[in-house]
Amino acid sequence: MTKPSVALSVWRTINTDRFLVGTPHYPEHVDESYWDNDARRMAEAGFNVARLGEFAWHIFEPREGTFDFDLFDRAIEGLGHHGLKTILCAPTATPPRWLTVKHPEILRVDGNGRSMSHGSRQHADTSSPVLRDYSRKITRAMAQHYRENPNVIGWQTDNELNTSMPESYSPSALKEFQAYLQETYKTIDRLNFASGGDFWATAYDDFDQIVFPLDFAPTFPSPGHMQDYHRFLAFSTTRFQHDQVEILRATNSDWFVFHNLGGLRDIDFRGQFSEDLDFVVYDIYPLLYDKFQRIGNHAKIQALHLDICRGFSGNYVVPEQQSGFGAQQGFCTLTPEQGEMRRMAMSSVARGADGVMFFRWRPAHFGAEIYWMGVIYHDDVARHRYDEARRFATEMTALKDKILGTWVHMDVGIAGSDFDNQEAHKTFPIGLPSPQDDAVLLHQYCYDRGKACGFIHPEDDLSRLKVFYVPHWVTWKDGWTERLEAFARNGGTVIIVARTGTRDENNHVIRETAPGSSLSALTGVRVKDFGRLAALGANGLFTTMTRSGGLVIPPVWPAESNRRVRRFTVGNQELDAGYFYENLSINADVEAIGVWSNRYAEGTPVITSRTLGKGRVLYVGTYLTAELTHQLATRTFADADVVPLVPDLPDGVEVTLRESGERRLLFLQNIKDTTATVAGVPSGGNLLDGDKATSGTLTLEGYGCAIIELN
Questions:
Q1: Radius of gyration of the chain measured on its C-alpha atoms
Q2: pLDDT tens-digit readout, 545-589
Q3: What angle do CA 325, 329, 334 make, to 5 degrees?
Q4: Inter-residue contact 317 to 258 (CB < 8 Å)
Q5: Which helix or strand (DSSP H or E) is residue 526 part of?
Q6: Same domain, 482 and 619
Q7: What value does the mean pLDDT take over residues 678-695?
Q8: Cβ atoms of residues 324 and 359 within 8 Å
Q9: How many secondary structure helices (H) and strands (E) does the chain include?
Q10: CB within 8 A of 179, min separation 6: which ones?
Q11: Where is the Beta-galactosidase trimerisation domain (predicted)?
Q12: What does residue 21 show for φ and ψ, rounded to 5 degrees?
């Protein structure tokens, strides 16, 4: 593998001729008498790689400046003896105790002033100059030691950066935050303007006066100040990683370098963070997301998560793919049923994975994850999970030349992957769904109907799409408008929704009539009035504010007659609006395809359409609901030639298309445990069934999968 020269793009494939399949492995957790049998069984399962060392700093450097590589040298040699290569990790997510004793100033501090404690992970602050110095030392020592080891083929930087806790409010972090702002703004006057210093006397005389934007200290901070703090966290994370990448690349240019993302917090994926890497990789735990997000079945959530991740920089590898149930002391996921582990891994490949590693080889017998299950059980027995992993590895190895080099087909693109918009919403949400929350409705609509949908940044290549949807991006760049205009003129359909473009890069509300001059020119609309609405089914807006020893404002529930429900018509359908309304004025060349139908705004446009070249631009002056999503899709997808990948897709079957030139691979997975019959399958050969010809009807067993190479 070599570092790619192409720009970050949802269409980017990984430059590799090997489908990485294997497992994270922790030889330090078991007696050495187990090692050879572990390596032998991995090889017999068809694995070609193992990931080692991400939490072993205390072993690699048991005392400051004293390095000991013996344990991992023997483990890597043993794996290599059975034909498995190793991906090593910079072990900086778990600084050893000698370091936190000597330098307690590297520990993170939360918003209440509580210093994090040794005994967990990610307890040290990546913005700390001291931690950065020690991170460089351990990375350099490991890189130098393994620079000529033929069994080490690549590296992972740190581990799941910012997953446990991205924030730190330590004295060290404050100095770094102040230095970041000085470098960014150059003068204190520019900083004061950007952060709104004339509101509540929050202006500073010098950069060393700047404080952290703490919540309820005693009230709310400036949105601009909060935005800059999270930009700083993203900057610090990128800088911390860059230190490691520089060392690794200078030591051995043949190594590939990646980072495994977990929680996706406070990282700007469209910048240097991803550009530094050969590819970005994502840890996938579908049953964990189902527990926390509660938006539907775990297969649908896995698809959403993967599509969001692919929008950052294209194809990826999954270094941690769920095998059994996962647990820490505070939670436990459900358990994949027999056949489901392979099905979930196949879904990862269908949505852009060019490699999959099952987490983990064997579960730990001690520590905070003793019930985070692996391929092998606690009793060292290989059961059905091992069989599923072996089947999957055999299939992917055999099909690597078909799969590698293909990207995921999309007809519908949802604007995503923009750090500033993600954070801008968080700084002042006013009870509204985030852009991603809104996008979920459209993504799930397409998923359920087998329509090719994903996430893509407006600076990416839009030419392969048919529809581009912008979900309430409050900050907007004029250059994006130009790209959307070109997309529409060439036949694309653009859908822009309420509040887009209403704040500037400083998180200030714009001084023009919304949605701003460039978007008004594109859409032909202006917002005359706007306001909040209750969510559908709610009894009204209310606020509860509670502080220790402070004021409590109880909920106020309006009577039913005072709920002020806003309704609008689209065609012959009348729908209730949720969350937000805008009353629009429109240009002469704009058609109102939806109007408010009650209260004072009756007859005022809410949804508009403007023909532009071969395509058109729609503007929606409210938030999506399930009913509105259906109406919009019904009115736009057919005209835009957005059709299902498989007609009449049965409930419980997931479909995705990967392609490159004339090569087209249709992935089908049955997410249920009962047999499914799929009609209307295009003709081709099922690569998972001996290239057996298919055309018309295909039967999938419970959790069954098919890859159809289309004719």
A1: 26
A2: 444 334 444 444 444 444 578 999 998 999 999 999 999 999 999
A3: 25
A4: yes
A5: strand 525-532
A6: yes
A7: 95
A8: no
A9: 18, 27
A10: 207
A11: 446-642
A12: -140, 130
